[in-house]
Design brief:
It is built from no helices and 7 strands. It is mainly β. The chain has one domain.
């Protein structure tokens, strides 16, 4: 399934460590999965493979599904979302 998400904020973040996270799609029980071509899909909740784990850095999520051998994809992160 290709995921759609309006804004990624604190309510979507599941911390695996101080900087590594997965992003939960609220209401679906799934997590974002960024593929090597940059497309965004979802996987079952609890998935934490290389396509599902991101580095959270202030205002961005950095995905590198193939590590240093592949492309890096950046998604915006809103540490605080107004009007929610």
């Amino acid at each position: 399934m290709i995921a759609t998400i309006d804004a990624i904020g604190p309510q979507h973040i599941h911390r695996l460590s101080e900087t590594l996270v997965t992003v939960t799609v609220i209401g679906s029980g799934e997590v974002l999965s960024v593929q090597p071509d940059g497309s965004i899909q979802t996987r079952p909740s609890g998935s934490a493979g290389p396509y599902e784990v991101a580095l959270l850095d202030r205002d961005r999520l950095i995905y590198a599904p193939l590590g240093a051998a592949g492309a890096v994809f950046i998604l915006p992160y809103c540490p605080a979302i107004p009007n929610t």
